Amino acid sequence: MSAAGTALPALVIMVGALVPALTAMLRGRPAGRLAGLIVAGPLVAVALTLLAAAYGRPAYLDVALVLALLSFAGSLVFARFLSRTL
After folding, report:
1. CA angle 16-61-68, nearest 5°?
2. pTM of the model
3. Span 70-75, average pLDDT
4. Separation CA 28–CA 35 (nearest Å)
5. Residue 73: which of 38, 47, 40 has the closest Cα?
6. What Cα–Cα distance (Å) separates residue 25 from each residue in 6, 11, 20, 68, 81?
7. pLDDT reading at 70 higher than 60
8. 3-state secondary structure of 61
9. How many angstroms separate the CA atoms of 11 and 48, rounded?
10. CA 57 – CA 61 distance, rounded (Å)
């Protein structure tokens, strides 16, 4: 089985796991939005890594690494802002 054949079902599962995280980010309370942001960042990074493996595009790995770093920093900034408003 090719890399695309094994990575695409996992990619579908990852995108399906994003639905609750996106719902929490869009409709939740501030703490729930923070939890959705923290969960969505690594899920999207893993999905991009699976796309890189499936299609042989190493540029997606760079995007996944930058996204993982920025989502971590973004969640820290949002948590700090949330702690000031409560």
Report:
1. 65
2. 0.78
3. 88
4. 9
5. 38
6. 30, 21, 9, 17, 16
7. yes
8. helix
9. 9
10. 8
Token representation of residue 55: 């299609």
Q: Which two tokens stand for residue 62?
A: 């760079």
Amino acid of residue 62:
D
User: Any idea of the CA torsion for 6, 65, 26, 7, to the nearest 10 degrees?
Assistant: 0
CA distances from 5 to 10, 51, 56 (A): 10, 11, 12
Burial class (CB in 10 A: 0-12, 13-18, 19+), 83: exposed
55 Cα distance to chain centroid:
19
Quote the tokens at residue 21. 């995280």
pLDDT of amino acid 3: 60
25 within 8 A of 3, measured Cβ to Cβ: no
Contact 14, 50 (CB under 8 A): yes
